[in-house]
């Protein structure tokens, strides 16, 4: 019953309000652009210098000058604008981005974020603009599989990987449930699996508070 990556992207898109300026990270976050409600005016920002980004370009219609930060061909919306890389980072650091959606290797129960490197010997560190967005965006949403391929939970008591930023994550959208970390621990706002909170807590290995409406 866990959500697919496309379903997860669609779920995140539901929570982006009208009038928002949003940065989408690499991977699953990129897919969010394809599921934003048509009746909302949402402006997408990419850190390599574009406002008004559209969804991923269809095969055969790619424009070599239109790529996002993950080097994926994208489209442009009417009124799109382009600017210097430094100006783009100024927007991120200056608090002008309402939401950022990014992936993570680990998120702690208090909202610490680790998403730029692991301890794997062959890992290529790649912080990009993540640290700027993590501290500069008004709200930080993380999208990730709840468990690694080895079965370890990515929600942890304390991150063991190098931190991107501390206490910055507002919400975690996983393939099993939606969590809100904070000073009092993890709150669960939605469960996608047909399991109860006690079972989910046992799988995660951390105490969870039920915050479902």
Automatic annotation (TrEMBL):
SUPFAM superfamilies: NagB/RpiA/CoA transferase-like. It comes from Leucobacter weissii. InterPro entries: 3-oxoacid_CoA-transf_B (IPR012791), CoA_trans_fam_I (IPR004165), NagB/RpiA_transferase-like (IPR037171). Keywords: Transferase. Belongs to the 3-oxoacid CoA-transferase subunit B family. It comes from the Bacteria. This is 3-oxoacid CoA-transferase subunit B. One of its GO terms (molecular function) is CoA-transferase activity.
């Amino acid at each position: 019953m866990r959500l697919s990556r496309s379903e997860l992207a669609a779920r995140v898109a539901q929570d982006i309000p009208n009038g928002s300026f949003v940065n989408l990270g690499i991977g699953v976050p990129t897919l969010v652009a394809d599921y934003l409600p048509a009746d909302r005016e949402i402006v997408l920002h990419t850190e390599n210098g574009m406002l008004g980004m559209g969804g991923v370009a269809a095969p055969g219609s790619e424009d070599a000058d239109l790529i996002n930060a993950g080097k994926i061909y994208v489209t442009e919306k009417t009124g799109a604008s382009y600017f210097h890389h430094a100006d783009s980072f100024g927007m991120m650091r200056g608090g002008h981005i309402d939401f950022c959606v990014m992936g993570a290797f680990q998120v702690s129960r208090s909202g610490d974020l680790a998403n730029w490197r692991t301890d794997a010997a062959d890992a290529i560190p790649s912080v990009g603009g993540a640290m700027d967005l993590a501290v500069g965006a008004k709200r930080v949403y993380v999208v990730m599989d709840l468990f690694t391929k080895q079965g370890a939970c990515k929600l942890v008591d304390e991150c063991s990987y190098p931190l991107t930023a501390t206490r910055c994550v507002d919400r975690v959208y996983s393939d099993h449930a939606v969590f809100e970390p904070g000073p009092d621990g993890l709150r669960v706002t939605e469960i996608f699996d047909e399991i109860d909170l006690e079972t989910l807590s046992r799988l995660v290995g951390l105490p969870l508070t039920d915050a479902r409406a």
